[in-house]
């Protein structure tokens, strides 16, 4: 019941004003979102780079209703690529894009999203960096992977995200474990039906390990997207077992979560990439994360109290 309420709240300007002004909420948002402006996010990039970390930047804005908004999101990413190029941060920072922000859910969305994201991928290559296509709910997987395949024909470094809780993901891992492929493996955060996804946390974890084994044994570049200490340890063990050097895989965690662990992995010589969301649509992002799995509410508030 709580999920639909939070989704409705995400579309309410009046509730947004209340949430934005609430003293308890704002520090939580500030912790997990790197500002509303591009210059604020770039300051965070420089700070993390100075601490030996890499980043992936997400300009918030996936909840769009018309093609004009998709163009604005495209332009925001083009501005981001220009900033990365000007500040010579292409080696430290890549970009994560949700194809819904480029129009995937609109009429003719597949072609529209491909048309809008292509210049961003082109600009990223010119800036010395790349793009990873975030994965959303299960209805978008086929379209997202088809767009990935088209982009990789010209830009083979383009990455993708796979979610272990979907039944299909082991097959997708086999398909994307080839040379040059970049895959971020996550457990999955959307509320999916039992017809397409594991519902039990233990089954999701088991699926994550099975998928990670496939990626680590393959010829691609695995990106371990997890805050779970067990998955981090398993990732280290699988990398060792498959003879992977530190430069041949990486860990990824969200901005503001388990920062002490992020720094520990860097100190041990691992590649650590921090997922940084920014933009004026922080409210919608924040509420949707809670709506996807209402237990996130307790997680966010608990994380606020224990920054490490």
From TrEMBL:
The keyword Flavoprotein applies. It catalyses: L-proline + a quinone = (S)-1-pyrroline-5-carboxylate + a quinol + H(+). InterPro entries: FAD-linked_oxidoreductase-like, PRODH_bac_arc, Proline_DH_dom, Proline_oxidase. Pathway: Amino-acid degradation; L-proline degradation into L-glutamate; L-glutamate from L-proline: step 1/2. Keywords: FAD, Flavoprotein, Nucleotide-binding, Oxidoreductase, Proline metabolism. One of its GO terms (biological process) is L-proline catabolic process to L-glutamate. FAD binds at residues 135, 163, 187-189, 201, 226-227. Its EC number is 1.5.5.2. Its cofactor is FAD. One of its GO terms (molecular function) is nucleotide binding. It is an enzyme of class 1 (oxidoreductase). This is proline dehydrogenase. The lineage of its organism: Bacteria, Bacillati, Actinomycetota, Actinomycetes, Kitasatosporales.
């Amino acid at each position: 019941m709580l999920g639909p309420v939070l989704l409705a709240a995400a579309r309410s300007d009046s509730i947004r004003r209340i949430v934005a002004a609430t003293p308890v909420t704002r520090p939580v948002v500030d912790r997990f979102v790197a500002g509303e402006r591009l210059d604020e996010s770039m300051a965070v990039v420089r700070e993390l780079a100075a601490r030996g970390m890499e980043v992936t930047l997400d300009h918030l804005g996936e909840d769009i209703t018309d093609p004009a908004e998709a163009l604005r999101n495209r332009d925001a990413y083009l501005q981001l690529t220009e900033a990365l190029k000007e500040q010579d941060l292409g080696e430290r920072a890549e970009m994560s894009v949700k194809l819904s922000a480029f129009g995937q859910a609109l009429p003719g969305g597949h072609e529209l999203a491909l048309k809008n994201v292509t210049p961003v991928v082109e600009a990223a290559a010119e800036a010395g960096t790349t793009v990873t296509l975030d994965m959303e709910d299960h209805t978008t997987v086929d379209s997202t992977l088809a767009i990935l395949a088209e982009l990789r024909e010209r830009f083979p470094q383009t990455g993708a995200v796979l979610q272990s809780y979907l039944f299909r993901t082991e097959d997708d891992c086999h398909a994307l474990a080839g040379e040059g492929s970049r895959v971020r493996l996550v457990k999955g955060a959307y509320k999916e039906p039992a017809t397409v996804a594991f519902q039990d946390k233990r089954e999701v974890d088991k699926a994550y390990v099975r998928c990670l084994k496939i990626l680590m044994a393959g010829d691609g570049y695995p990106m371990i997207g997890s805050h779970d200490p067990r998955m981090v340890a398993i990732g280290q063990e699988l990398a060792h077992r498959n003879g992977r050097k530190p430069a041949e895989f990486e860990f990824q965690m969200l901005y503001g979560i388990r920062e002490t662990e992020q720094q520990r992995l860097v100190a041990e010589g691992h590649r650590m990439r921090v997922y940084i969301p920014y933009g004026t649509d922080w409210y919608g992002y924040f509420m949707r994360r809670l709506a996807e799995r209402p237990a996130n509410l307790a997680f966010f508030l608990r994380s606020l109290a224990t920054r490490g």
